[in-house]
Design a protein that fits this description.
With about 130 residues, this protein is mostly helical. It contains 4 helices and no strands. Helix 1 packs antiparallel against helix 2. One of its GO terms (molecular function) is zinc ion binding.
Length: about 130
């Protein structure tokens, strides 16, 4: 049976994707923890008050860096949520099926982006 004729992945294939998602989830959670730790340390690092221009520039750079780390943490949190939703789709039997076309998403795409809900054709058609 060719991939086009299949309507869902086998239990063995789903286990492979589930393992991949769990691995990516572990790494993503570890990275999120590191980002949060970095933010916590940056917020705790008090410096002596000085009225110099360099202090103002330093504060501006610190604020910019904190905002950047916050954005990274938010993206990482969204990635984690999407991976967890993919695990739910595996459990309810809808994993790997494109929400736009109803066809099976290619294995290569799922290996690269295991939380996707769109085939590459559907993704490109949206552009």
């Amino acid at each position: 049976m060719s991939q086009e004729e299949k309507t869902s992945y086998s239990q063995e294939e789903l286990r492979e994707f589930e393992q991949l998602i769990h691995e990516k989830l572990a790494v993503a959670k570890q990275e999120l923890t590191m980002l949060k730790d970095t933010l916590g340390k940056r917020n705790d690092s008090g410096t002596d008050y000085t009225a110099s221009t360099s202090k103002v520039l330093e504060d501006g750079a610190d604020t910019l860096e904190r905002e950047s780390i916050n954005q990274l943490a938010a993206r990482q949190q969204k990635f984690i949520i999407n991976l967890e939703k993919a695990l739910m789709r595996i459990k309810n039997g809808t994993y790997g099926i494109c929400v736009d076309t109803g066809k099976l998403i290619a294995k290569e795409r799922l290996r690269a982006v295991p939380h996707t809900m769109h085939s590459i054709e559907a993704k490109l058609a949206k552009r």
